[in-house]
Amino acid sequence: MLEASNLECVRGERRLFADVGFRLEGGEMLYVQGSNGSGKTSLLRMLCALTPAASGEIRWRGKPIGRLGEEFRSELCYLGHQNAIKEELTPLENLRSSAQLAQESLDPDAALDALELVGLRGREDLPCRYLSQGQKRRAALARLVNERRPLWVLDEPYVALDTAAVELVAGLIGAHLQRGGLAVLTTHQAVPIPAAAVRELWLGDDHAAPGGGRSRTC
């Protein structure tokens, strides 16, 4: 279970949002929306314990994430707006390196199958600097194929992807939720994902007072 209460984000002298809260159980997804600059990425980084909140609290399984440390990080898969791949490494090397950093086992056959699924078979041994932006994004998203950590936090997972790849990623997220996982994501594309409940959270814009947020369940 992931729970946030009374979160506030301040950048410089500007308050991006305040009084933001939600609660997610297994199989549920939070869809974070808002205009550019409303604090969507900042909120996601707070949920990953990468950026401190000005005020408020985030709990995982009933405990503050700041006190859990590695115990929380070991249950978290974060994929940011940037691909976080090494340009000099191949998609296969990047995928296996990510698994190693997460202390997860990933044999070569499983890695190759994941790259084939995301459309990179035949390019698995090509350094990522030679890939297109869409192919680099696929290389980053290949992590999700064998990912079994319960909490996924995804910042614009569909960016630079074609329609088929968007549907594939949505299917991976849906399968994760059906296994009882949780997901938090931002996206400008409305893509249907099967989930026990989809909660929507708006930051700023017309759905809330400036600096605030509003949520609802679909």
Layout of strands and helices, then pairs:
Blueprint: E1 2-11, E2 14-24, E3 28-34, H1 40-47, E4 55-60, E5 63-64, H2 65-68, H3 70-73, E6 76-79, H4 91-101, H5 108-117, H6 133-141, E7 151-155, H7 163-178, E8 182-186, E9 197-203, E10 213-217
Parallel strand pairs: 3-8, 3-9, 6-7, 7-8
Antiparallel strand pairs: 1-2, 1-4, 4-5, 9-10
Question: What are the key terms here?
Answer:
218 residues; alpha/beta; six-stranded mixed sheet; four-stranded antiparallel sheet; 7 helices; 28% strand
Number of DSSP strands? 10
- Low-confidence runs of at least 5 consecutive residues: 206-211
Instruction: Using the alpha-carbon principal axes, give the shape.
Output: globular
Strand order across the largest sheet: 6-7-8-3-9-10
Describe the fold and architecture.
It is a single chain. This protein is of the alpha/beta class and 218 residues long. It contains 7 helices and 10 strands. It is 28% helix and 28% strand. A 6-stranded mixed β-sheet has the order 6-7-8-3-9-10, sandwiched between helices. The radius of gyration is 17 Å and the shape is globular.
Brief digest:
With 218 residues, the chain is α/β, with parallel strands linked by helices. The protein is built from 7 helices and 10 strands. The longest helix is centred in the C-terminal third of the chain and has 16 residues, at 163-178.
